[in-house]
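Why run this: before we spend reagent on co-expression, it is cheaper to look at a predicted model of the complex and decide which construct boundaries make sense. The entries below are exactly what would go into the expression plan.
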Amino acid sequence: MLIPPEFYSAHDVVDIARLLLGKLLVTEIDGHRSSGIITETEAYAGVTDKASHAWGGRRTKRTEVMYMQGGTAYVYLCYGIHHLFNVVTHEEGTPHAVLIRAIEPVDGLDIMLQRRKMSKLTPALTAGPGALSQALGINTAMTGLSLFGNSVYIEERPVIPDTNIVAATRIGVNYAGDDALLPYRFYIKGNKYVSKGKGL
DNA sequence: CAGCAGATTGACT
DNA sequence: GTCAATCTGCTGC
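The model came back. Tokens follow.
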């Protein structure tokens, strides 16, 4: 069962980031279904968040998608190589988004291994924003797609209890000054499919 | 219009 | 542990 549109249009992006843990992220491409449980997320709180692309109200062709209605996929190309998958939240006109940083593989293991050019399952398959996007076949062509009735969507799953969730600072955003210290990163405690980041 | 840094990963010393 | 790959968009000349 799909997560309803109201879930994404809620106003507290940090709350949504936490609730997305444990949900099932699915892609269906050329008839192939691949999916994984979301194990790690980060919130990006629009114009007031220096780490966000939309900080200060910046608006470009690329970030335009962030201003769309909650429940839209925002795929951003980072370092010219890696596709980072985000879920747009809040209502139209407010550029909030949740970055999906890691998933635990569920369906389509073979096709994921093939896409990643790997032969056996390791946490590196889907632990990391660029890695999970590649494994699921997500690319910049998916940006702007709604998560309803398209090739990418999220299925409902039981909420992870707070005792199994860890809040931490975000990764790779030290340039954002004070905002880099915000506890906007969430992951499932003890799960192997959580990205390590560079330092931390 | 040229230069540079970034929500990262993987290969090499 | 260190460094290159490769494209978007911001900053500065």
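The mean pLDDT of chain A is 94. The beta strands of chain A are 24-29, 32-45, 72-78, 82-89, 96-107, 152-155, 165-168, 185-188. Bring this page to Monday's planning discussion.
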